[in-house]
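Reviewer comment 2.1 asked that we show a complete input and output for one of the modelled complexes. We chose the fructose -6-phosphate case, as it is the one discussed in the main text.
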Amino acid sequence: MCGIVGYLGKNEKKEILLDGLQELEYRGYDSAGIAVIEGKNLNQFKAIGKLENLREKTKNYQTKGFGISIGHTRWATHGKPTELNAHPHLGDYSYVVHNGIIENYQALKAELQAEGVKFLSQTDTETIVHLFEKENKTSKSVFQAFKNTIERLDGAYATLLITQADTDTIYFAKHGSPMLVGFNGDDVYFASSDTPIIGKATEVYYLEDGEYGYAKEGVFKLFDANGEKTFKKQALTADKVLAQKDGYRFFMEKEIYEQSRVISETMMGRVLDDTIALDELGSDFFEGINSVKICACGTSYHSALTAAYLLERLAKVRCDIEIASEFRYKDPLLTPDTLFITISQSGETADTLEALKMAKRAGLKSLSICNVDNSSIVRESDAAILTRAGIEKGVASTKAFATQTMVLWILALYIGQEKKTISKDVLKTEIDAMLHTPKALVVTDTLHEKLHRLSKRYLHGHGFFFIGRDIFFPLALEGALKLKEISYMHAEGYPAGEMKHGPIALADSELFTIALMPKSMHYDKMKSNVEELSARDATICAISPLPFELADDFIQTKYDSHPMLEFFEMMVVTQLLALEISVRLGNDVDMPRNLAKSVTVE
Ligand code: F6R
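Response of the prediction step:
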């Protein structure tokens, strides 16, 4: 995801910006840029690819004395990763950097173009700087022009603006994307997270949504919808690794907590009030397509299995799912009316990449769902939908799974909408549920504490069965995979209705069954399956919004109005349960033994 750094003061600005952006590398990016104003001089540098390229371009440049400066690492959303699309974006005399998505940028851009403004990039961000310069022609102050500009933006943004019209001031605004301000004497820093300013600023203020203002030497003004406001700075930690983990014990834990936020990024600009938009796909993308085949590995394969239910049910498209390493050697029958979808967090998984190449050789149209733009799988595909989870550091995948599943749900609705196989009412109901997903993903202290306490009862036994039906079966597979990856205990995911066809033979008090019992989908059937296990003395941990008498342990969920909301809420429970068990066993949660984050070998 994009990263922002800003600095106002007398120190060497280039180094502060580049070092700060380096600290944000973990978020992922495909281009970077900086802009500095010193006196009346305005300098800017941009480079695609790694920050070293920007360092190389700026090696002979040095800043001197007081100045204002902004920097950015860009993770492409609107428009390809090119220098023109990299931030900062220039108007006639101002620069802007921005994280997030301006949802009404097309309307704003059309308005500005009609007035003769020329756009250089394909980005939504460039509208901000042109809009500002337009407002500045008629506003009584530069600040008023900035305020008028942000009032016209819909969507999410964290943005910094510098202008030759006011050469000692940085203007800032935050709504929906993270940004904080660091202070050290008269020096002011801005950043998307605190790692870039650790060791530089001594105090910090985390901006709230709807806040905006400006900083100049010795002056910092903060406003919201009610006018100017006071705020309280807090001391800034000096520990970088701790800060990268945002105070969480493990990256995996941080990533579980982040899911509620990143899922909003996944939906941004795609899930609208009563329609689904996927600008990544041309209007004729599904022409001639009668079926879908999805290929992936591991956790990504589990999101594919979930998608099969959604695609057939909502989009009425036939859908087959394949494990990439199996697909490669089975001499598959491939027909050109099949859309070949690959799912991959890293975009580099060797088996998935090779499966994609095979499908392309057979003449199939390809689409990838991926977290890393410009990865091999994205480059190899005809089209790509990015999951926008931000870099995932924990080896055990969590937020990647959540965002992949969201993209697939969006895709199912989009196909249904384009092929007119879904009614307006159903589409509306699905969209309403989608918009509630961030809430269903929130981790409450009560839930985390409960799972922490419960986990001590699950440190032994001869195995776990995660069971569920329909979309809760792939979730059961994923829950089991999470647990085995980081606890090193045996866990299996199973369709609940299949237990009596064999595995029930294992049932005794040392067999732990994690039962996914949603209210909105096949509750009674699921209940009967769990009762059969309970009758054989299996230990039952039930996850459900409905109390279940036979459960040895019971985790009550809240969202019962839509299966996908139940899915996401239960997903969080299984992730946290695995995490807490692993912690109690003293395992390395973020780097489990024998596993690698990106599997680039067959
Ligand atoms: C499990 C996990 C792996 C990956 C698999 C595919 O937590 O992360 O199972 O899902 O190796 O990786 P990607 O999605 O990068 O293709």
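The chain has a mean pLDDT of 93. We note this here for comparison with the apo prediction described in Section 3.2.
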